[in-house]
Amino acid sequence: MKQLQKGFTLIELMIVVAIIGILAAVAIPAYQDYIAKAQATEAFSLLDGLKTPVAEAMAQDPSAGCAIPIGAVSSGKYVASIGATFTTPSCALLATYAASGVSTKVVSKTVTLTFDSTTGAWTCVSNLATEIKPKACS
After folding, report:
1. What is the pTM of this model?
2. What are the phi and psi torsion angles at 85 (to 5°)?
3. What backbone torsions phi and psi does residue 137 show, to the nearest 5 degrees?
4. Distances in Å between the alpha carbon of 138 and those of 54, 64, 68, 126, 127?
5. Which pLDDT score is estimated for 1?
6. Averaged pLDDT, 9-18
7. Disulfide: which of 4, 8, 26, 129 matches 12 by Cβ 3.0-4.6 Å?
8. What is the per-residue pLDDT across 41-85, written as a single tens digit (0 to 9) for each?
């Protein structure tokens, strides 16, 4: 009479555990980069919403137009603050990330969108790491 094998052998279980360990070693850093990218996009989303009102206000009065509009969102879950600075002929919108509760790759980093009223162009400058910074802000 033949005896049927029931269950897995020890070597089979060890192989499965090793494969899971290798996959976890690759997935965890990729997941952390994904989280940092997601948190970094908040500043760009908040600043993007301010582009039109600031550009319109700068067209009417450059010195007074460089201000965060009343009622605009000036902070977020990962962004501690958003401010505006006027330097003739430009208006700079600065978003600063929070110092805690965010990925270590975005802690206290900044994003600056600058509007040049003579050309009507926006430029982006950030001290975020290259792997999490959007390509539009290089």
Report:
1. 0.80
2. -135, 130
3. -115, 80
4. 22, 29, 24, 8, 10
5. 62
6. 94
7. 8
8. 999 999 999 999 999 998 888 778 888 988 999 999 999 999 999
Residues 6 or more apart whose CB falls under 8 angstroms from that of 93 comprise 47, 50, 54, 68, 82, 83, 84, 112, 113, 114, 115
DSSP type of residue 83:
E
Quick one: tokens of 109? 């980093």
CB of 93 closer than 8 Å to CB of 84: yes
| Tokens 């500043």, residue located | 43
Structural contact between residues 99 and 110, judged by C-beta atoms closer than 8 angstroms:
no
Sequence-ordered list of residues with C-beta below 8 angstroms from that of 113, at least 6 positions apart, any chain: 47, 50, 51, 92, 93, 122, 123, 124
